Amino acid sequence: MEIKELTRAEEQLMQILWQLEKGFVKDVIELLPEPKPAYNTVSTIIRILETKGFVSHNAYGKSHEYYPVISKEQYQNFATDKLMSGYFDNSVQHMFSYFVKKEKIDLKEADEILKLIEKLKSK
């Protein structure tokens, strides 16, 4: 199945559904920050997520309990691949260099990354 890119609002709701594992629209709204969007807005976005293949539901009469079909890890892989190919020429080195230049990585994190690299080399 092809994964599609999510809008910011869709991704925010997916983050909550991944956290909940399953829930009703009201459960999702409870975890949204203030000001809370209208019930119909959240319901509509969740139905769009269902159309995109990210979410499915169990029906209990007129109530629907939604749950993720695409895991957070699957979307993370998709988003990372898109970021790598779109902005860093599929080069981890270019991406790492970017974060170092932007000072998004401190010395402790850089040390941890180097340890991971050494671990990979020794396999």
Automatic annotation (TrEMBL):
It comes from Mucilaginibacter auburnensis. One of its GO terms (biological process) is negative regulation of DNA-templated transcription. SUPFAM superfamilies: Winged helix' DNA-binding domain. One of its GO terms (molecular function) is DNA binding. It holds the Pfam family Penicillinase_R. Belongs to the BlaI transcriptional regulatory family. This is Putative transcriptional regulator. Keywords: DNA-binding, Transcription, Transcription regulation.
